[in-house]
Protein backbone atom coordinates (compact mmCIF):
# COMPACT_ATOMS: atom_id res chain seq x y z
CA UNK A 1 0.00 0.00 0.00
CA UNK A 2 1.59 3.30 -1.00
CA UNK A 3 0.36 6.62 0.18
CA UNK A 4 0.83 9.59 -2.08
CA UNK A 5 1.26 12.84 -0.32
CA UNK A 6 1.79 16.42 -1.33
CA UNK A 7 3.41 17.32 1.94
CA UNK A 8 7.21 16.97 1.65
CA UNK A 9 7.61 16.74 5.46
CA UNK A 10 5.33 13.75 5.60
CA UNK A 11 7.14 12.15 2.67
CA UNK A 12 10.50 12.73 4.34
CA UNK A 13 9.38 11.31 7.63
CA UNK A 14 7.92 8.26 5.87
CA UNK A 15 11.26 7.79 4.13
CA UNK A 16 13.10 8.21 7.41
CA UNK A 17 10.90 5.68 9.09
CA UNK A 18 11.48 3.20 6.27
CA UNK A 19 15.23 3.69 6.62
CA UNK A 20 14.98 3.27 10.39
CA UNK A 21 13.00 0.04 9.94
CA UNK A 22 15.62 -1.26 7.50
CA UNK A 23 18.28 -0.53 10.14
CA UNK A 24 16.29 -2.33 12.84
CA UNK A 25 15.78 -5.31 10.58
CA UNK A 26 19.47 -5.53 9.81
CA UNK A 27 20.03 -6.17 13.53
CA UNK A 28 18.20 -9.49 13.30
CA UNK A 29 20.49 -12.01 11.59
CA UNK A 30 17.90 -14.77 11.53
CA UNK A 31 15.47 -12.73 9.46
CA UNK A 32 17.72 -13.08 6.40
CA UNK A 33 17.03 -16.82 6.32
CA UNK A 34 15.32 -18.69 3.55
CA UNK A 35 12.52 -21.14 4.29
CA UNK A 36 11.22 -23.59 1.71
CA UNK A 37 12.88 -21.62 -1.07
CA UNK A 38 11.42 -18.26 0.00
CA UNK A 39 12.59 -15.37 2.14
CA UNK A 40 11.39 -16.07 5.65
CA UNK A 41 8.37 -14.02 6.68
CA UNK A 42 8.34 -14.40 10.44
CA UNK A 43 4.88 -13.66 11.82
CA UNK A 44 5.10 -15.60 15.05
CA UNK A 45 6.50 -12.87 17.29
CA UNK A 46 3.68 -13.52 19.74
CA UNK A 47 5.02 -17.01 20.44
CA UNK A 48 8.62 -15.91 20.65
CA UNK A 49 10.57 -13.00 19.22
CA UNK A 50 13.68 -13.16 17.11
CA UNK A 51 16.82 -11.73 18.70
CA UNK A 52 18.87 -8.72 17.69
CA UNK A 53 22.60 -9.26 17.44
CA UNK A 54 23.27 -7.14 20.55
CA UNK A 55 21.34 -9.65 22.68
CA UNK A 56 23.22 -12.60 21.23
CA UNK A 57 26.51 -10.73 21.70
CA UNK A 58 25.71 -9.76 25.28
CA UNK A 59 25.14 -13.37 26.26
CA UNK A 60 28.24 -14.51 24.43
CA UNK A 61 30.40 -11.72 25.90
CA UNK A 62 29.29 -12.69 29.36
CA UNK A 63 30.56 -16.22 28.82
CA UNK A 64 33.71 -15.00 27.12
CA UNK A 65 34.69 -12.44 29.73
CA UNK A 66 32.70 -12.40 32.97
CA UNK A 67 31.19 -15.81 33.73
CA UNK A 68 30.91 -16.61 37.44
CA UNK A 69 28.25 -17.54 39.97
CA UNK A 70 26.53 -14.50 41.46
CA UNK A 71 25.98 -13.55 45.10
CA UNK A 72 28.47 -16.24 46.12
CA UNK A 73 32.18 -15.73 46.58
CA UNK A 74 34.42 -12.72 46.73
CA UNK A 75 36.74 -13.07 43.77
CA UNK A 76 36.82 -10.39 41.12
CA UNK A 77 34.87 -12.33 38.50
CA UNK A 78 32.12 -13.17 41.00
CA UNK A 79 31.85 -9.52 41.91
CA UNK A 80 31.70 -8.48 38.26
CA UNK A 81 29.10 -11.10 37.41
CA UNK A 82 27.00 -10.05 40.39
CA UNK A 83 27.21 -6.44 39.30
CA UNK A 84 26.05 -7.37 35.78
CA UNK A 85 23.23 -9.46 37.21
CA UNK A 86 21.99 -6.62 39.42
CA UNK A 87 22.52 -4.03 36.72
CA UNK A 88 20.27 -6.09 34.45
CA UNK A 89 17.64 -6.02 37.17
CA UNK A 90 17.86 -2.22 37.35
CA UNK A 91 17.54 -1.80 33.58
CA UNK A 92 14.60 -4.19 33.31
CA UNK A 93 12.88 -2.62 36.34
CA UNK A 94 13.27 0.77 34.78
CA UNK A 95 11.92 -0.51 31.47
CA UNK A 96 8.60 -1.51 33.07
CA UNK A 97 8.27 1.29 35.61
CA UNK A 98 9.19 -0.74 38.69
CA UNK A 99 11.84 -0.52 41.42
CA UNK A 100 14.69 -2.98 41.14
CA UNK A 101 13.88 -4.86 44.36
CA UNK A 102 10.41 -5.52 42.97
CA UNK A 103 11.81 -7.59 40.10
CA UNK A 104 12.28 -11.31 40.71
CA UNK A 105 14.06 -13.37 38.06
CA UNK A 106 12.25 -16.55 37.06
CA UNK A 107 12.70 -18.90 34.14
CA UNK A 108 9.65 -17.55 32.30
CA UNK A 109 6.24 -16.00 32.87
CA UNK A 110 4.68 -19.36 33.61
CA UNK A 111 7.15 -19.91 36.45
CA UNK A 112 6.47 -16.38 37.73
CA UNK A 113 2.72 -16.95 37.97
CA UNK A 114 3.21 -20.37 39.55
CA UNK A 115 5.51 -18.75 42.10
CA UNK A 116 2.68 -16.50 43.29
CA UNK A 117 0.17 -19.37 43.31
CA UNK A 118 2.43 -21.69 45.32
CA UNK A 119 3.49 -18.91 47.69
CA UNK A 120 -0.20 -18.35 48.42
CA UNK A 121 -0.54 -22.07 49.15
CA UNK A 122 2.37 -21.85 51.53
CA UNK A 123 0.75 -18.86 53.23
CA UNK A 124 -2.46 -20.87 53.50
CA UNK A 125 -0.46 -23.62 55.19
CA UNK A 126 0.71 -21.04 57.73
CA UNK A 127 4.17 -20.36 56.28
CA UNK A 128 5.45 -16.81 56.32
CA UNK A 129 3.94 -15.96 59.67
CA UNK A 130 1.32 -13.34 60.38
CA UNK A 131 2.43 -11.05 57.58
CA UNK A 132 1.71 -13.73 55.01
CA UNK A 133 -1.83 -14.30 56.21
CA UNK A 134 -3.05 -11.70 53.74
CA UNK A 135 -2.30 -14.34 51.06
CA UNK A 136 -4.01 -17.24 52.85
CA UNK A 137 -7.13 -18.61 51.18
CA UNK A 138 -10.11 -20.22 52.86
CA UNK A 139 -12.71 -22.55 51.48
CA UNK A 140 -15.20 -20.55 49.42
CA UNK A 141 -12.81 -17.69 48.69
CA UNK A 142 -12.93 -16.71 45.04
CA UNK A 143 -10.24 -16.39 42.40
CA UNK A 144 -11.51 -14.46 39.41
CA UNK A 145 -9.86 -15.41 36.11
CA UNK A 146 -10.71 -13.90 32.76
CA UNK A 147 -11.84 -16.08 29.91
CA UNK A 148 -9.10 -14.59 27.73
CA UNK A 149 -6.25 -16.04 29.74
CA UNK A 150 -3.37 -18.06 28.44
CA UNK A 151 -3.30 -21.41 30.28
CA UNK A 152 -0.30 -20.03 32.21
CA UNK A 153 -2.60 -17.56 33.98
CA UNK A 154 -5.43 -20.04 34.48
CA UNK A 155 -4.19 -23.52 35.35
CA UNK A 156 -1.98 -22.40 38.30
CA UNK A 157 -5.10 -20.76 39.80
CA UNK A 158 -7.17 -23.90 39.23
CA UNK A 159 -4.50 -25.85 41.09
CA UNK A 160 -4.36 -23.26 43.88
CA UNK A 161 -8.14 -23.45 44.21
CA UNK A 162 -8.00 -27.24 44.37
CA UNK A 163 -5.38 -27.11 47.13
CA UNK A 164 -7.17 -24.52 49.25
CA UNK A 165 -10.90 -24.98 48.66
CA UNK A 166 -11.15 -21.65 46.86
CA UNK A 167 -13.29 -21.49 43.71
CA UNK A 168 -12.59 -20.11 40.23
CA UNK A 169 -15.00 -17.51 38.92
CA UNK A 170 -14.70 -16.71 35.22
CA UNK A 171 -14.69 -13.12 34.07
CA UNK A 172 -16.36 -13.32 30.67
CA UNK A 173 -15.17 -12.07 27.29
CA UNK A 174 -17.37 -10.25 24.81
CA UNK A 175 -18.20 -11.52 21.31
CA UNK A 176 -15.53 -9.12 20.07
CA UNK A 177 -12.92 -10.93 22.16
CA UNK A 178 -12.44 -8.24 24.78
CA UNK A 179 -12.71 -8.48 28.52
CA UNK A 180 -16.31 -7.73 29.49
CA UNK A 181 -15.58 -4.83 31.81
CA UNK A 182 -19.28 -4.51 32.57
CA UNK A 183 -19.19 -7.88 34.31
CA UNK A 184 -16.57 -6.75 36.86
CA UNK A 185 -19.21 -5.35 39.17
CA UNK A 186 -21.05 -8.66 39.53
CA UNK A 187 -18.21 -11.16 39.21
CA UNK A 188 -15.69 -9.44 41.47
CA UNK A 189 -17.22 -9.27 44.94
CA UNK A 190 -16.79 -9.69 48.67
CA UNK A 191 -15.27 -13.15 48.45
CA UNK A 192 -12.86 -12.30 45.66
CA UNK A 193 -9.26 -12.56 46.85
CA UNK A 194 -7.44 -12.36 43.55
CA UNK A 195 -8.15 -11.29 39.97
CA UNK A 196 -5.98 -12.77 37.20
CA UNK A 197 -6.12 -10.92 33.89
CA UNK A 198 -3.99 -10.51 30.84
CA UNK A 199 -2.82 -7.08 29.76
CA UNK A 200 -3.30 -8.14 26.14
CA UNK A 201 -4.77 -11.36 24.79
CA UNK A 202 -2.41 -13.61 22.86
CA UNK A 203 -5.40 -14.67 20.73
CA UNK A 204 -7.62 -11.65 20.13
CA UNK A 205 -4.94 -9.00 20.63
CA UNK A 206 -7.39 -6.99 22.75
CA UNK A 207 -5.70 -4.68 25.25
CA UNK A 208 -7.35 -4.81 28.66
CA UNK A 209 -8.70 -1.78 30.48
CA UNK A 210 -6.44 -2.52 33.44
CA UNK A 211 -7.60 0.53 35.40
CA UNK A 212 -11.18 -0.75 35.47
CA UNK A 213 -10.02 -4.15 36.74
CA UNK A 214 -7.71 -2.67 39.37
CA UNK A 215 -10.37 -0.24 40.61
CA UNK A 216 -12.91 -2.96 41.14
CA UNK A 217 -10.46 -5.49 42.57
CA UNK A 218 -8.93 -3.05 45.02
CA UNK A 219 -12.36 -1.81 46.04
CA UNK A 220 -13.10 -5.30 47.39
CA UNK A 221 -9.57 -5.85 48.72
CA UNK A 222 -8.52 -8.36 46.05
CA UNK A 223 -5.07 -8.66 44.51
CA UNK A 224 -4.53 -8.18 40.77
CA UNK A 225 -2.12 -10.46 38.91
CA UNK A 226 -1.39 -9.09 35.45
CA UNK A 227 -0.08 -11.27 32.65
CA UNK A 228 2.09 -8.75 30.80
CA UNK A 229 3.65 -11.24 28.36
CA UNK A 230 2.13 -9.70 25.26
CA UNK A 231 2.14 -6.08 26.37
CA UNK A 232 5.72 -5.53 27.56
CA UNK A 233 7.31 -6.25 24.14
CA UNK A 234 4.87 -4.07 22.23
CA UNK A 235 3.61 -1.20 24.41
CA UNK A 236 5.24 1.10 26.90
CA UNK A 237 4.29 -0.51 30.23
CA UNK A 238 4.47 1.33 33.55
CA UNK A 239 3.62 -1.16 36.28
CA UNK A 240 3.50 1.44 39.05
CA UNK A 241 1.09 3.55 37.05
CA UNK A 242 -1.05 0.49 36.30
CA UNK A 243 -1.15 -0.13 40.06
CA UNK A 244 -1.29 -3.92 39.74
CA UNK A 245 -0.07 -6.10 42.61
CA UNK A 246 1.83 -8.72 40.65
CA UNK A 247 2.82 -9.00 37.00
CA UNK A 248 4.64 -11.56 34.90
CA UNK A 249 6.42 -11.49 31.57
CA UNK A 250 8.93 -13.52 29.60
CA UNK A 251 12.26 -12.42 28.20
CA UNK A 252 12.01 -14.47 25.03
CA UNK A 253 8.97 -12.56 23.75
CA UNK A 254 10.70 -9.18 24.20
CA UNK A 255 13.78 -9.87 22.04
CA UNK A 256 15.59 -11.46 24.98
CA UNK A 257 16.88 -14.98 25.54
CA UNK A 258 14.85 -18.01 26.53
CA UNK A 259 15.17 -19.19 30.12
CA UNK A 260 14.56 -15.81 31.71
CA UNK A 261 11.31 -14.27 32.91
CA UNK A 262 10.19 -11.74 35.44
CA UNK A 263 7.85 -11.67 38.38
CA UNK A 264 7.01 -8.15 39.44
CA UNK A 265 5.52 -7.71 42.88
CA UNK A 266 4.66 -4.59 44.78
CA UNK A 267 7.44 -4.21 47.38
CA UNK A 268 5.22 -4.59 50.46
CA UNK A 269 3.66 -7.72 49.00
CA UNK A 270 6.95 -9.39 48.09
CA UNK A 271 8.17 -8.64 51.61
CA UNK A 272 5.22 -10.52 53.08
CA UNK A 273 5.24 -13.40 50.59
CA UNK A 274 6.72 -16.72 51.75
CA UNK A 275 9.26 -18.43 49.49
CA UNK A 276 8.43 -21.32 47.20
CA UNK A 277 11.67 -22.82 45.95
CA UNK A 278 14.10 -23.07 48.84
CA UNK A 279 17.79 -23.92 49.12
CA UNK A 280 20.96 -22.01 48.45
CA UNK A 281 21.26 -18.27 47.84
CA UNK A 282 17.93 -17.37 49.45
CA UNK A 283 18.78 -17.89 53.13
CA UNK A 284 20.35 -15.94 55.99
CA UNK A 285 21.00 -18.39 58.85
CA UNK A 286 20.63 -22.13 58.44
CA UNK A 287 20.71 -24.67 61.28
CA UNK A 288 19.93 -28.38 61.05
CA UNK A 289 16.28 -27.74 61.78
CA UNK A 290 15.40 -24.36 60.32
CA UNK A 291 16.42 -21.37 58.25
CA UNK A 292 15.72 -17.69 57.95
CA UNK A 293 15.23 -16.10 54.59
CA UNK A 294 16.67 -13.15 52.74
CA UNK A 295 14.49 -10.21 51.79
CA UNK A 296 13.04 -10.08 48.28
CA UNK A 297 14.04 -10.43 45.52
CA UNK A 298 16.74 -12.92 46.67
CA UNK A 299 14.19 -14.81 48.78
CA UNK A 300 12.62 -16.02 45.53
CA UNK A 301 15.83 -16.76 43.64
CA UNK A 302 17.06 -20.06 45.06
CA UNK A 303 19.91 -21.90 43.45
CA UNK A 304 22.46 -20.81 40.88
CA UNK A 305 20.89 -18.16 38.71
CA UNK A 306 20.60 -17.77 34.93
CA UNK A 307 23.07 -14.91 34.76
CA UNK A 308 23.87 -14.89 31.05
CA UNK A 309 20.16 -14.68 30.28
CA UNK A 310 19.70 -11.65 32.53
CA UNK A 311 22.56 -9.95 30.72
CA UNK A 312 20.88 -10.80 27.40
CA UNK A 313 17.56 -9.51 28.66
CA UNK A 314 19.22 -6.29 29.76
CA UNK A 315 20.47 -5.81 26.20
CA UNK A 316 16.96 -6.48 24.86
CA UNK A 317 15.34 -3.95 27.20
CA UNK A 318 18.01 -1.44 26.25
CA UNK A 319 17.46 -2.11 22.54
CA UNK A 320 13.72 -1.49 22.93
CA UNK A 321 14.29 1.62 25.06
CA UNK A 322 16.64 3.00 22.44
CA UNK A 323 14.00 2.50 19.76
CA UNK A 324 11.46 4.06 22.10
CA UNK A 325 8.36 2.12 23.03
CA UNK A 326 6.15 4.87 21.61
CA UNK A 327 7.80 4.40 18.23
CA UNK A 328 7.55 0.62 18.52
CA UNK A 329 3.86 0.83 19.39
CA UNK A 330 3.17 3.29 16.57
CA UNK A 331 4.98 1.11 14.03
CA UNK A 332 3.11 -1.97 15.15
CA UNK A 333 -0.22 -0.20 15.17
CA UNK A 334 0.33 0.71 11.54
CA UNK A 335 1.14 -2.94 10.80
CA UNK A 336 -1.94 -4.10 12.69
CA UNK A 337 -4.17 -1.77 10.72
CA UNK A 338 -2.63 -3.00 7.46
CA UNK A 339 -3.03 -6.62 8.51
CA UNK A 340 -6.66 -6.23 9.57
CA UNK A 341 -7.57 -4.30 6.43
CA UNK A 342 -5.82 -6.90 4.28
CA UNK A 343 -7.50 -9.86 5.95
CA UNK A 344 -10.88 -8.15 5.58
CA UNK A 345 -10.29 -8.30 1.80
CA UNK A 346 -9.88 -12.08 1.79
CA UNK A 347 -13.28 -13.80 1.49
CA UNK A 348 -14.22 -16.55 3.97
CA UNK A 349 -11.75 -15.42 6.61
CA UNK A 350 -13.01 -14.37 10.05
CA UNK A 351 -10.83 -12.53 12.54
CA UNK A 352 -11.15 -13.63 16.16
CA UNK A 353 -10.95 -10.36 18.02
CA UNK A 354 -11.43 -6.67 17.33
CA UNK A 355 -11.31 -5.83 13.63
CA UNK A 356 -10.00 -2.28 14.12
CA UNK A 357 -6.50 -1.43 15.29
CA UNK A 358 -7.75 0.36 18.39
CA UNK A 359 -6.75 -0.89 21.86
CA UNK A 360 -5.48 -3.89 20.00
CA UNK A 361 -2.10 -5.42 19.37
CA UNK A 362 -0.78 -6.98 16.18
CA UNK A 363 -1.64 -10.50 17.30
CA UNK A 364 -4.29 -11.50 14.79
CA UNK A 365 -5.94 -14.90 15.04
CA UNK A 366 -8.39 -15.92 12.37
CA UNK A 367 -10.31 -18.81 10.93
CA UNK A 368 -10.48 -19.74 7.26
CA UNK A 369 -13.87 -21.22 6.54
CA UNK A 370 -13.58 -24.87 5.57
CA UNK A 371 -9.84 -25.16 6.10
CA UNK A 372 -8.35 -26.39 9.36
CA UNK A 373 -5.66 -24.13 10.91
CA UNK A 374 -3.03 -26.86 10.53
CA UNK A 375 -3.68 -26.89 6.81
CA UNK A 376 -3.71 -23.09 6.60
CA UNK A 377 -0.37 -22.95 8.41
CA UNK A 378 1.10 -25.60 6.14
CA UNK A 379 0.23 -23.71 2.96
CA UNK A 380 1.63 -20.49 4.44
CA UNK A 381 4.80 -22.28 5.54
CA UNK A 382 5.32 -23.51 1.99
CA UNK A 383 5.43 -19.81 1.03
CA UNK A 384 8.01 -19.12 3.73
CA UNK A 385 5.48 -17.56 6.10
CA UNK A 386 5.73 -18.65 9.75
CA UNK A 387 2.49 -18.34 11.72
CA UNK A 388 1.14 -20.17 14.73
CA UNK A 389 -1.63 -22.75 14.48
CA UNK A 390 -3.61 -24.41 17.22
CA UNK A 391 -5.23 -23.06 20.36
CA UNK A 392 -2.19 -20.96 21.35
CA UNK A 393 -2.46 -22.27 24.93
CA UNK A 394 -5.79 -20.52 25.33
CA UNK A 395 -8.58 -23.04 24.88
CA UNK A 396 -11.31 -21.18 26.80
CA UNK A 397 -11.28 -18.09 24.57
CA UNK A 398 -11.34 -20.26 21.45
CA UNK A 399 -14.33 -22.13 22.82
CA UNK A 400 -15.97 -18.80 23.70
CA UNK A 401 -15.53 -17.61 20.11
CA UNK A 402 -16.92 -20.85 18.73
CA UNK A 403 -13.79 -22.54 17.38
CA UNK A 404 -11.42 -25.26 18.59
CA UNK A 405 -8.34 -23.64 17.16
CA UNK A 406 -7.13 -20.88 14.86
CA UNK A 407 -4.28 -19.57 12.77
CA UNK A 408 -2.43 -16.58 14.21
CA UNK A 409 -0.20 -13.99 12.60
CA UNK A 410 1.68 -11.74 15.01
CA UNK A 411 4.01 -8.87 14.26
CA UNK A 412 7.11 -7.49 15.93
CA UNK A 413 9.51 -4.56 15.84
CA UNK A 414 11.21 -5.75 12.67
CA UNK A 415 8.08 -6.68 10.71
CA UNK A 416 7.52 -4.82 7.43
CA UNK A 417 4.39 -4.06 5.46
CA UNK A 418 5.94 -5.93 2.53
CA UNK A 419 6.08 -9.05 4.70
CA UNK A 420 2.42 -8.66 5.57
CA UNK A 421 1.64 -8.47 1.85
CA UNK A 422 3.46 -11.77 1.22
CA UNK A 423 1.37 -13.29 3.99
CA UNK A 424 -1.88 -11.80 2.65
CA UNK A 425 -1.13 -13.11 -0.86
CA UNK A 426 -0.48 -16.59 0.46
CA UNK A 427 -3.60 -16.42 2.62
CA UNK A 428 -5.71 -15.52 -0.41
CA UNK A 429 -4.59 -18.77 -2.07
CA UNK A 430 -5.36 -21.12 0.81
CA UNK A 431 -8.94 -22.02 0.00
CA UNK A 432 -8.14 -22.56 -3.67
CA UNK A 433 -5.43 -25.01 -2.70
CA UNK A 434 -8.05 -27.15 -1.00
CA UNK A 435 -10.48 -26.85 -3.89
CA UNK A 436 -12.79 -24.35 -2.21
CA UNK A 437 -14.33 -21.24 -3.73
CA UNK A 438 -12.29 -18.07 -3.29
CA UNK A 439 -14.96 -15.48 -3.82
CA UNK B 1 7.08 -32.47 -6.35
CA UNK B 2 7.08 -29.56 -3.94
CA UNK B 3 7.02 -30.21 -0.20
CA UNK B 4 3.38 -29.26 -0.08
CA UNK B 5 2.43 -31.70 -2.82
CA UNK B 6 4.32 -34.50 -1.11
CA UNK B 7 2.17 -33.86 1.92
CA UNK B 8 -1.17 -33.26 0.29
CA UNK B 9 -1.30 -35.98 -2.34
CA UNK B 10 -4.47 -35.99 -4.40
CA UNK B 11 -5.82 -39.10 -2.68
CA UNK B 12 -5.51 -37.29 0.66
CA UNK B 13 -7.28 -34.19 -0.59
CA UNK B 14 -10.04 -36.37 -2.05
CA UNK B 15 -10.54 -38.30 1.17
CA UNK B 16 -10.48 -35.07 3.19
CA UNK B 17 -13.39 -33.83 1.08
CA UNK B 18 -15.37 -37.07 0.58
CA UNK B 19 -14.96 -38.72 3.93
CA UNK B 20 -15.79 -42.38 4.50
CA UNK B 21 -17.10 -43.52 7.87
CA UNK B 22 -17.90 -40.04 9.16
CA UNK B 23 -20.96 -39.86 11.39
CA UNK B 24 -21.13 -42.14 14.41
CA UNK B 25 -23.28 -45.23 13.86
CA UNK B 26 -25.30 -46.77 16.67
CA UNK B 27 -24.34 -50.35 17.37
CA UNK B 28 -26.68 -53.01 15.98
CA UNK B 29 -29.16 -54.20 18.61
CA UNK B 30 -27.70 -57.15 20.43
CA UNK B 31 -24.17 -56.55 19.16
CA UNK B 32 -21.84 -57.87 21.83
CA UNK B 33 -18.46 -56.48 20.81
CA UNK B 34 -18.68 -52.71 20.57
CA UNK B 35 -15.93 -50.31 21.51
CA UNK B 36 -15.47 -46.58 21.38
CA UNK B 37 -12.42 -44.37 21.76
CA UNK B 38 -12.00 -40.65 22.21
CA UNK B 39 -8.64 -39.17 21.27
CA UNK B 40 -7.35 -35.61 21.31
CA UNK B 41 -4.35 -33.97 19.76
CA UNK B 42 -3.22 -31.67 22.57
CA UNK B 43 -1.28 -29.33 20.32
CA UNK B 44 -4.29 -28.25 18.28
CA UNK B 45 -7.24 -29.41 20.34
CA UNK B 46 -8.43 -31.74 17.58
CA UNK B 47 -10.74 -34.52 18.67
CA UNK B 48 -11.97 -37.76 17.28
CA UNK B 49 -14.51 -40.22 18.59
CA UNK B 50 -14.37 -43.57 16.82
CA UNK B 51 -16.66 -46.56 17.28
CA UNK B 52 -16.23 -50.14 16.10
CA UNK B 53 -18.53 -53.10 16.12
CA UNK B 54 -16.90 -56.53 15.91
CA UNK B 55 -18.35 -59.94 15.17
CA UNK B 56 -17.01 -63.45 15.74
CA UNK B 57 -15.36 -64.88 12.68
CA UNK B 58 -17.36 -67.72 11.06
CA UNK B 59 -14.25 -69.91 11.19
CA UNK B 60 -13.56 -69.09 14.83
CA UNK B 61 -10.46 -67.05 13.91
CA UNK B 62 -9.74 -63.38 14.51
CA UNK B 63 -12.97 -61.37 14.91
CA UNK B 64 -14.24 -59.30 12.00
CA UNK B 65 -14.63 -55.51 12.10
CA UNK B 66 -18.24 -55.04 11.05
CA UNK B 67 -18.47 -51.25 11.20
CA UNK B 68 -16.14 -48.36 11.75
CA UNK B 69 -17.62 -44.92 12.24
CA UNK B 70 -16.23 -41.68 13.60
CA UNK B 71 -16.83 -38.03 14.28
CA UNK B 72 -14.41 -35.31 14.98
CA UNK B 73 -12.79 -31.99 14.47
CA UNK B 74 -9.55 -32.18 12.61
CA UNK B 75 -7.31 -31.13 9.78
CA UNK B 76 -7.32 -32.60 6.31
CA UNK B 77 -4.56 -35.06 7.21
CA UNK B 78 -6.34 -36.45 10.26
CA UNK B 79 -9.69 -36.69 8.51
CA UNK B 80 -8.29 -38.21 5.35
CA UNK B 81 -6.43 -40.73 7.48
CA UNK B 82 -9.67 -41.69 9.26
CA UNK B 83 -11.47 -42.01 5.94
CA UNK B 84 -8.76 -44.22 4.42
CA UNK B 85 -8.58 -46.30 7.57
CA UNK B 86 -12.33 -46.93 7.43
CA UNK B 87 -12.05 -48.27 3.88
CA UNK B 88 -9.08 -50.44 4.74
CA UNK B 89 -10.21 -52.16 7.92
CA UNK B 90 -13.96 -52.45 7.58
CA UNK B 91 -15.04 -56.05 6.93
CA UNK B 92 -11.51 -57.25 7.57
CA UNK B 93 -10.20 -59.14 10.57
CA UNK B 94 -8.87 -57.56 13.76
CA UNK B 95 -5.59 -59.36 13.09
CA UNK B 96 -5.24 -57.72 9.68
CA UNK B 97 -6.16 -54.33 11.11
CA UNK B 98 -3.49 -54.69 13.80
CA UNK B 99 -0.90 -55.60 11.19
CA UNK B 100 -1.94 -52.66 9.03
CA UNK B 101 -1.77 -50.33 11.99
CA UNK B 102 1.78 -51.49 12.76
CA UNK B 103 2.81 -50.97 9.15
CA UNK B 104 1.28 -47.50 9.11
CA UNK B 105 3.20 -46.59 12.26
CA UNK B 106 6.38 -47.84 10.61
CA UNK B 107 5.62 -45.62 7.61
CA UNK B 108 5.18 -42.62 9.92
CA UNK B 109 8.58 -43.29 11.50
CA UNK B 110 10.31 -43.58 8.15
CA UNK B 111 11.06 -39.86 7.59
CA UNK B 112 9.32 -39.75 4.26
CA UNK B 113 10.95 -42.76 2.64
CA UNK B 114 8.68 -45.53 1.32
CA UNK B 115 8.64 -48.90 3.09
CA UNK B 116 9.90 -52.05 1.37
CA UNK B 117 7.54 -52.94 -1.46
CA UNK B 118 5.92 -56.00 0.13
CA UNK B 119 5.02 -53.90 3.19
CA UNK B 120 3.94 -50.88 1.21
CA UNK B 121 1.57 -52.98 -0.86
CA UNK B 122 -0.40 -54.00 2.21
CA UNK B 123 -1.08 -50.35 2.96
CA UNK B 124 -3.27 -49.67 -0.08
CA UNK B 125 -4.36 -46.01 -0.14
CA UNK B 126 -2.68 -45.42 3.24
CA UNK B 127 0.66 -45.53 1.41
CA UNK B 128 0.03 -42.00 0.11
CA UNK B 129 0.66 -40.70 3.62
CA UNK B 130 4.37 -41.37 3.07
CA UNK B 131 5.05 -37.64 2.66
CA UNK B 132 3.46 -36.81 6.02
CA UNK B 133 6.42 -38.37 7.80
CA UNK B 134 8.59 -35.56 6.46
CA UNK B 135 6.54 -33.09 8.48
CA UNK B 136 7.06 -34.07 12.13
CA UNK B 137 4.31 -31.72 13.31
CA UNK B 138 1.76 -33.58 11.20
CA UNK B 139 2.56 -37.21 12.08
CA UNK B 140 0.26 -37.03 15.11
CA UNK B 141 -2.56 -35.89 12.80
CA UNK B 142 -2.18 -38.96 10.60
CA UNK B 143 -1.92 -41.30 13.57
CA UNK B 144 -4.85 -39.96 15.59
CA UNK B 145 -7.43 -42.20 13.87
CA UNK B 146 -5.21 -45.26 14.07
CA UNK B 147 -4.73 -44.70 17.79
CA UNK B 148 -8.48 -44.42 18.20
CA UNK B 149 -8.99 -47.62 16.19
CA UNK B 150 -6.55 -49.61 18.28
CA UNK B 151 -8.13 -48.38 21.51
CA UNK B 152 -11.71 -48.95 20.34
CA UNK B 153 -10.94 -52.50 19.17
CA UNK B 154 -9.22 -53.30 22.47
CA UNK B 155 -12.28 -52.08 24.34
CA UNK B 156 -14.64 -54.06 22.10
CA UNK B 157 -12.62 -57.21 22.79
CA UNK B 158 -12.37 -56.78 26.56
CA UNK B 159 -16.02 -56.41 27.26
CA UNK B 160 -19.26 -54.53 26.83
CA UNK B 161 -19.01 -50.77 27.08
CA UNK B 162 -21.48 -48.95 29.24
C1 LIG C 1 -0.40 -14.02 27.17
C2 LIG C 1 0.63 -15.05 27.52
N1 LIG C 1 0.76 -15.45 28.79
C3 LIG C 1 1.67 -16.35 29.17
C4 LIG C 1 2.52 -16.92 28.26
C5 LIG C 1 3.50 -17.94 28.75
O1 LIG C 1 4.80 -17.51 28.57
P1 LIG C 1 6.00 -18.53 28.79
O2 LIG C 1 5.66 -19.74 27.99
O3 LIG C 1 7.19 -17.82 28.28
O4 LIG C 1 6.06 -18.83 30.25
C6 LIG C 1 2.41 -16.55 26.92
C7 LIG C 1 3.29 -17.15 25.89
O5 LIG C 1 3.09 -18.21 25.37
C8 LIG C 1 1.45 -15.59 26.54
O6 LIG C 1 1.31 -15.22 25.27
UniProtKB/TrEMBL annotation, chain A:
A Pfam family it matches: Aminotran_5
Cofactor(s) demanded: pyridoxal 5'-phosphate
Domain Aminotransferase class V intervals: 41-423
This protein's record includes keyword Hydrolase: no
Catalytic activity: (sulfur carrier)-H + L-cysteine = (sulfur carrier)-SH + L-alanine
Key words of the record: Pyridoxal phosphate, Transferase
EC number: 2.8.1.7
CDD domains the record matches: SufS_like (cd06453)
GO MF annotation list: cysteine desulfurase activity; pyridoxal phosphate binding
GO BP, one annotated term: cysteine metabolic process
PANTHER family to which the protein is assigned, alphabetical: CYSTEINE DESULFURASE (PTHR43586), CYSTEINE DESULFURASE 1, CHLOROPLASTIC (PTHR43586:SF8)
Primary role: Catalyzes the removal of elemental sulfur and selenium atoms from L-cysteine, L-cystine, L-selenocysteine, and L-selenocystine to produce L-alanine.
Similarity comment: family membership: Belongs to the class-V pyridoxal-phosphate-dependent aminotransferase family. Csd subfamily.
Name the UniProt record assigns to this protein: Cysteine desulfurase
Lineage: Bacteria, Bacillati, Actinomycetota, Actinomycetes, Micrococcales
TrEMBL record, chain B:
Pfam family membership, one: NifU_N
InterPro entries named in the record: NIF_FeS_clus_asmbl_NifU_N (IPR002871)
Gene3D superfamilies cross-referenced by the UniProt entry: 3.90.1010.10
Signal peptide positions (record): none
GO biological process: iron-sulfur cluster assembly
Any GO molecular function: iron ion binding
Superkingdom: Bacteria
Domain annotation NIF system FeS cluster assembly NifU N-terminal: ranges: 8-141
Family matches, as NCBIfam families: SUF_scaf_2
Protein name: SUF system NifU family Fe-S cluster assembly protein
Lineage: Bacteria, Bacillati, Actinomycetota, Actinomycetes, Micrococcales
Amino acid sequence: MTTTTANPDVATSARERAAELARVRADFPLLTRQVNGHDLVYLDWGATSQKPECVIDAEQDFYLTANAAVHRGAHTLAAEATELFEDARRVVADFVGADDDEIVWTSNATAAINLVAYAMSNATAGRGGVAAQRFALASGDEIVVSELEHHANLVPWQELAARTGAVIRPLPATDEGRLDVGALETVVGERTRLVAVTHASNVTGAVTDVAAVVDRAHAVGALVVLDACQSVPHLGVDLHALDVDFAAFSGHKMLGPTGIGVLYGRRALLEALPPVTTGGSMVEVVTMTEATYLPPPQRFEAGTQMVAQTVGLRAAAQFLSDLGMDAVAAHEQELTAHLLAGIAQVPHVRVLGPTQAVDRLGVVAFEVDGVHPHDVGQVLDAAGVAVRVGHHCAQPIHRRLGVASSTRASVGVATTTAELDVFLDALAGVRAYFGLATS
Amino acid sequence: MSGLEQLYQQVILDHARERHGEGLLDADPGAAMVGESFQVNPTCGDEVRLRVQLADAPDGGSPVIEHVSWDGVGCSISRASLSVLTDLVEKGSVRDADALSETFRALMSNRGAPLPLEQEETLGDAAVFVGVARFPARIKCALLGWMALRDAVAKALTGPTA
